[in-house]
Amino acid sequence: MTPKSAVPSLEGLDLLASAVIVLNAEGGIVYANAAAENMLESSVRVLLHQKLSDLFTNGELLKPLFAEAVAHRFADKRLDLVLERAGREALQVDAVITALDRPEMPVLIELRENIQQLKLDREERLLDQSQANKELIRNLAHEIKNPLGGIRGAAQLLELELPERHLKELREYSQVIIKEADRLQTLVDRLLAPHRRPHIVGDVNIHEVCERVRSLILAEFPQGLVVRRDYDLSIPEFRGDKEQLIQAMLNIVHNAAQALTERIRSGDAELKLETRVARQVTLAKVRYKLALDLHIIDNGPGIAPDIEDRIFYPLVSGREGGSGLGLTLAQTFVQQHLGVIECESRPGRTDFRILIPLP
After folding, report:
1. What are phi and psi of 24, to 5 degrees?
2. Which of 176, 268, 290, 293 could form a disulfide with 278 if both were Cys (CB 3.0 to 4.6 A apart)?
3. Quick check: 290 pLDDT over 60?
4. Helix count (H) and strand count (E) of the chain?
5. CB atoms < 10 A from the CB of 41, how many?
6. What is the rounded CA–CA span in Å between residue 92 and residue 81?
7. pLDDT range class, residue 4, cuts 50, 70, 90
């Protein structure tokens, strides 16, 4: 007899997608369906020997709910819970606690992982951070830009005042000042570019954007890199700024190609451009029936874990000598189209996903 057949009347619950757990009068688990095994990452044979509250580091919060259910203070109660686990990611779940009229198993708990809420919370944090980044960039760029002109002008005037006999030796130093001022000016201009350039709206065919980016990247990396395409040609045109989208996508693809340096040398570097239509998508708390679902996938080494959560922050780069502006600008351009960029990365596969509402 298997552990589940000890409660034969509940075996049909194995067909449910949500996790179902039945507790005895002491709070011990007497039944767990297949979805509960998956959610709790443990077999039913192991779960049957434990109390549900002992599975979580904050399990104490379940005890008063269990006591109220046993005392029949409610028929069922719905609530959102964050169940913390040692060494693993916390479970954010919608929970339904039901009081049963069976003394040997008085409480049934149904848990459904709240993936959508996790996604919304993450997007909200990204949008808030992005807005803060924009303000910081604008203010910092203006603060740098103002004295730069004065520094460059003073260096030019100083060069004109140099005595003829020392001009050759000293001009080298004045030129260092001028060139570094120009370099900083270029950096500042890049920081301010998204906020200066007008948003030029027209009809955009996303596959024209993809093909333009593909041709640009293959011109720069003609050997050792394969760019595969998997397009859904039914995707309609939408209103947007074509040049901004080309730049956003090019920044991501260029970063990916640079991360593939070792694989390009060995001749097995691969980029994949994939387009699909996503349905019923929520972006920035707004629900859209249709959205462009664009993936840029590479087979590189992946993003370093210590910067994975910060890759869209300005001046954060995983590459030595990188400016850390490419992904920041890409995110800004996509957000101007009411969209968002997401990223999942592991060694051998990094997937940047761009979601933009469609008409």
Report:
1. -90, -175
2. 293
3. yes
4. 9, 12
5. 8
6. 6
7. very low
pLDDT for 242:
92
Q: For the range 207-212, what are the long-range contacts, defined as Cβ-Cβ under 8 Å and sequence gap of 24 or more?
A: 207/231, 207/233, 207/235, 207/275, 208/242, 209/242, 209/245, 209/246, 209/249, 210/249, 210/273, 210/275, 210/294, 212/246
Residue keyed to tokens 């959560």: 309
pLDDT, residue 130, reads 65
Determine the Cα–Cα distance for residues 26 and 6; give it in Å rounded to an integer. Answer: 18
Could you tell me which of 6, 61, 1, 53 has the C-alpha nearest to residue 28? 53
Nearest to 224 by CA among 261, 184, 175: 261
Task: State which amino acid sits at residue 175.
Answer: Q
Q: Taking residues 67-93, what's their average pLDDT?
A: 87
In whole angstroms, give the CA distance from residue 217 to residue 342: 21
Higher-confidence position of 328 and 12:
328
User: What are the φ and ψ backbone dihedral angles of 219, each rounded to 5 degrees?
Assistant: -70, -35
pLDDT of residue 161: 82
